[in-house]
């Protein structure tokens, strides 16, 4: 009679290989840890948590077991770098409406800054959607100054802001000229012919001054803020006087070129170009 088939040997359960993921390390239970030696528990702990705390040799087995179980319950730190979204850069640009220093001072109290800004905004909006400069605020430059600071959203071009000059004149008056907060130079040209036959004859207009300046290579494509104006205090009884104007000059090179090569005005070479200091 054939021998009875022997039963297969019992299969000893095998532990999963060590892993650094807490989600797959739950196979290690409290009873299983209690059945192991302290040295084995420490080895398992080091393999599961290579960046975890060091367990001293004289630590009790019960404390080692609790340390293992507590670390199993902690969430794994994310290995991916959390990149914060880039901050949106909010920019603005300021222009100053400067009053001609030789024009009469404002009579009476200055207008409320907020009301003036709203008035200008309304006139700009009436021009339609083609306007490339958005006015968002404004204020008087100081408590006693007659100059007004306009604040524009973003970085509008100088040409876009200058295209609104007629609106600024309408609200503030023709005695105001527009200049940016930086990147410009304000100069005085001396020894400019007044072209007057008599002391009572009118001076050349701002349009004539623009034209004569543009005839010089040193002033070619020069972006002038506002109109050139005569320093009227020096014109009485004189056939020569000075004019002043501000122009775009971010790097200062145009100013230096003009200082070394003063422009000609009405057939006469101006004697000196210097920066205007208010």
Mind explaining what this structure looks like?
This protein has three domains: 49 residues; 93 residues, Alpha-Beta Plaits; 96 residues, Alpha-Beta Plaits (2-Layer Sandwich), CATH 3.30.70. The chain is 26% helix and 21% strand. The radius of gyration is 41 Å and the shape is elongated. By secondary structure, it is an alpha+beta fold.
Summarize the structure.
This protein is an alpha+beta fold and 278 residues long. Helix content is 26%, strand content 21%.
Secondary structure layout plus pairing:
Blueprint lengths: L29 H5 L3 H11 L12 H13 L18 E8 L13 H13 L9 E6 L7 E6 L4 H5 L2 H8 L3 E5 L3 E10 L12 H9 L9 E7 L9 E9 L4 H8 L3 E2 L2 E2 L3 E3 L3
Antiparallel strand pairs: 1-3, 1-4, 2-3, 5-7, 5-10, 6-7, 8-9
Helix pairs in contact: 2-3
